[in-house]
Amino acid sequence: MTNDTKQSVIDNESTLNEINTFIKPLIDQICWKITKSYGGAYILDFGESISFGQSILGTWFINTYGTNFILTDSNEQVLINTQGLDIENPSTEQIIVNALGKLNKKSVATINVDYDTLQLNLKFDDETVFRIIPTCEDDQYEDLPYWLIHRPDNNYLTVGPSRKFSINKKNSN
Q1: What is the value of pTM for the model shown?
Q2: How far apart are CA 92 and CA 68, in angstroms?
């Protein structure tokens, strides 16, 4: 098995369409686990559960990589906005996990990336909206993407920092 990595810059609508096509199969997948990862990162697991070492992961997952996110309900009321929060504080962590728990057992209705902001937008079947919102402050971490989406075929997409993206595909030879 070999890896094929495409690295590029999001500089036109055609590139954005490629990204949106890559992530579109996440539609109808059910979110079943939300966990805090290293630093300020949160992982949302979707699809079937699989064993990975001592961990149980979703066949699909999204990693926020510590990038700010906002969760709103069907009335556009903000349930959590991590901008300005000390996301590594244990009491804040519990507030965030509780808010994100509203996504448990919800399926993705729509998903897209905004061209101007590189914001990842997920709308769920109950009209709840989860947005990962990169800011220029996130660019200081040159080796970390804004967010990642991993697919069941072990291919994954990273977006950021800046307007960079990469699609990593596993090829069987």
Answers
A1: 0.92
A2: 14
